[in-house]
Amino acid sequence: MTSSAMIRAEGLVKTFGDFTAVDGIDVEVRPGEAFGFLGPNGAGKSSTMRMIGCVSPPSAGTLEILGMDARTQGAQIRARLGVVPQKDTLDEELTVEENIWVYGRYFGLSRRLVRERAEELLDFAQLTGRAKSVVEPLSGGMKRRLTIARALVNSPSVLLLDEPTTGLDPQARHVLWDRLFRLKREGVTLVLTTHYMDEAEQLCDRLVVMDQGRVVAEGSPRSLIEQHSTREVLELRFDVADHQPVAEKVHGVAERVEVLPDRLLLYTADGESAQAEVTRRGLDPLSALVRRSTLEDVFLHLTGRTLVD
């Protein structure tokens, strides 16, 4: 752990009665980086984020944010955080700019400063033309951008984003990614949770993979793929109800074979050579696809299930 860490957790635990949601994790977030928590629903990501946001006290372990103790200095920490919750909490009867004005006043900002910040943030979020519009009829992508703009009104040192693009269409997701890239270039430290592996690969400098409340891997997206998967994956689909018997017929073709309900995944350094060997063995799949390994393959290897479980 480094003394300059924006967030430092050691042995962090969160329990709810007899249930352990976060089970002794160690995490360090460095200044100016985009750090991600990757995992399926129920992995402990949101419970961790609530502790980092100082709205849920740790049950055990150490948690320091911006050099302060999360247990005893929560108010001071929250004043320097921006928080984008999993579900938008906008006041839909107010206008777009009024949502930012009201939120800024919670931080004690003057009316003049709040209005200046709102103008800047609406330009950043590409919502200047909707400043006078009420929120209710806006698209999901616009509401999400407004939520992020609102979270930046206090010029936070760290921006927490819990599942920032859940429910958005692909175009809206890419617009939002562009806004987050801009924030990172401006020096804002981003901490996000996601169960979208492509989002984690696009946004995160480093991440931890969580499963059942524990960290099962940590590193950059590329280093995790190199460490826990092969360069390529051959996906095979057959016209059978159970792919397990087919898996036995491709034994030895690849370094590792994963059997999913609807397909086989063959992990290999050379997908085309593996596909040729499958054909040589007389197997005729309905479809065959050679692709690069992704973080989903890493997760499957580490936990035995896919991210969307």
Structural summary, described in words:
The protein has 309 residues and is of the alpha/beta class. It has 2 domains: 7-220, Rossmann fold, CATH 3.40.50; 230-292, YebC, transcriptional regulation domain (Alpha-Beta Plaits, 2-Layer Sandwich). The chain is 34% helix and 27% strand. It contains 11 helices and 14 strands. The strands form 3 sheets. A 6-stranded mixed sheet has the order 6-7-8-3-9-10, with helices on both faces. A 4-stranded antiparallel sheet has the order 2-1-4-5. The radius of gyration is 22 Å and the shape is globular. The mean pLDDT is 93.
Main CATH class of the largest domain: Alpha Beta
- Secondary-structure-based class equals alpha/beta
- Output the strand order for the largest sheet: 6-7-8-3-9-10
Q: CATH H-level name of the largest domain... which superfamily?
A: P-loop containing nucleotide triphosphate hydrolases
Strand content: 25-35%
Give the tally of β-strands. 14
Present the secondary structure layout.
Blueprint: E1 7-16, E2 19-29, E3 34-38, H1 45-52, E4 60-65, E5 68-69, H2 74-78, E6 81-84, H3 96-106, H4 111-124, H5 140-151, E7 158-162, H6 170-185, E8 189-194, H7 197-203, E9 206-211, E10 214-219, H8 221-228, E11 232-237, H9 244-249, E12 256-260, E13 263-268, H10 271-280, E14 287-292, H11 295-303
Parallel strand pairs: 3-8, 3-9, 6-7, 7-8
Antiparallel strand pairs: 1-2, 1-4, 4-5, 9-10, 11-13, 11-14, 12-13
Helix pairs in contact: 3-4, 3-5, 5-6, 8-11
